[in-house]
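Dear Dr. H.,

I hope your travels went smoothly. While you were away I took the liberty of generating a structure for the chain from your last submission, since the lab meeting agenda had it listed for discussion. I wanted you to have the full record in hand beforehand rather than looking at slides cold. The sequence, exactly as received, is reproduced here:
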Amino acid sequence: MMHTPDRWLSKAGLASRGEVLEWIAAGRLSLGGRPVHPDRAIPSPRSTPERMVLPPFCLDGIRLLPPAPLLLGLNKPRGVLVTRSDPGGRRVIGDLVGSSPWGNAVFGSIRPLGRLDQASAGLILLTNFPELFSDFLDPSSQTLRSYRVQISPPLGESERTLFFEGRGGEGPGYGRIEVFPERRSLRSEWIHVRLAEGQNREIRNFLAWYGYRVLHLIRTSFGPYQLGHLSPGAIDDLTERVGEAGVRWVAWSGSP
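The corresponding predicted structure, in token form, is as follows:
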């Protein structure tokens, strides 16, 4: 089995492909005591799809070893960016992971599965082996996401009928978007929204098409995983439940 260095280390949960290319450009990554070339295909003869053996890469002279696999659920607070770092110094989910029990470098590169915009809150899934979740995230898998959404003004009667029949996505060109009522007041209304597409800002764009402004948006579930009573900023270990996403961990080891 052969991969370029960035693919090897990304698959092994150690870094994103962009990070690996930065290491190579800075002369930090080596193999067998020599700098590696970003386009060089490097073999690992003993690897199989079920058991992967990482070539003996070193970063700053220190051997890189595959981490134990993780799947985490984070309750992202509103205002936090779904990224590991931000040049502008804004608060990011990397800060929350870094201050958690999984912030140690031994767990590799923990990255989000999907996105929530800065103004949204709720469940974000994180893993150090994101490539294994490609089918789970693929739109064709029809993985359902659920949200609580506060909108203003309250739904008009024509939209209530359209939305509650699941046909609200047709006008702005989306697939089926299911809407369920929660409670309403004179100036706003809380609704539940469920969809499978998960396009960028889909809920905000869909509601804006009908003239509604989103005041709060909270993701409450992603596939089989629920936000539940997880506090804002808190992280839950879902590693043992990975099979519910149709994922099976691949066994990784380092070269002898």
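Two observations you may find useful: The chain has a mean pLDDT of 94. Residues 71-138+225-251 form a domain with the Alpha-Beta Plaits fold (CATH 3.30.70.580).

With kind regards,
E. W.
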